[in-house]
Write a structure and sequence with these properties.
The protein is α+β, with helices and mostly antiparallel strands and 137 residues long. The protein is 26% helix and 26% strand. Strands 2-1-3-4-5 form a 5-stranded mixed beta sheet.
Length: 137
């Protein structure tokens, strides 16, 4: 998708940057912040936190989705992901699937780096031919 034609929502970026500062990443030093906007126009944020066992590490997207579900919402309308490298931070494969559980294939996912470089794609572009809830209902 052409990122030049899509405006990255400044309010969501600010929220993602603010929570990114809280990330706990003593092993990788890679801090990630996420802001989700729901179809009810509420925002939920999350940051990554690592664990010495590594398998218990949690991604920022998962943290934000957990906060959203805890608040009783289940429909993501838009996502901003910001990482601590200069290049846009893409959700990992597991997080793409987590987002897919709560989002339509055409939602926008805005990926940013700390240099200001951004890339916007739909969920379907990031996770083509995805497996979702409709397959088990």
């Amino acid at each position: 998708m052409n990122q030049n034609k899509i405006m990255v929502p400044a309010e969501m970026v600010a929220k993602a940057q603010a929570v990114q500062a809280n990330a706990y990443s003593p092993y990788s030093n890679f801090k990630v912040g996420v802001c989700l906007r729901t179809t009810q126009h509420n925002f939920f944020v999350g940051c990554n936190y690592e664990n010495a066992s590594f398998s218990l590490t949690s991604c920022a997207e998962g943290s934000a989705i957990a906060a959203m579900v805890n608040a009783g919402e289940k429909q993501i309308a838009e996502v901003v992901v910001i990482g601590s490298s200069e290049h846009p931070c893409s959700p990992c494969g597991a997080c793409r699937q987590r987002i897919r559980e709560f989002a339509a294939p055409d939602i926008l996912i805005h990926m940013l780096g700390n240099s200001g470089e951004s890339l916007t794609m739909t969920l379907d572009e990031l996770l083509p031919v995805s497996f979702g809830p409709k397959f088990i209902k």
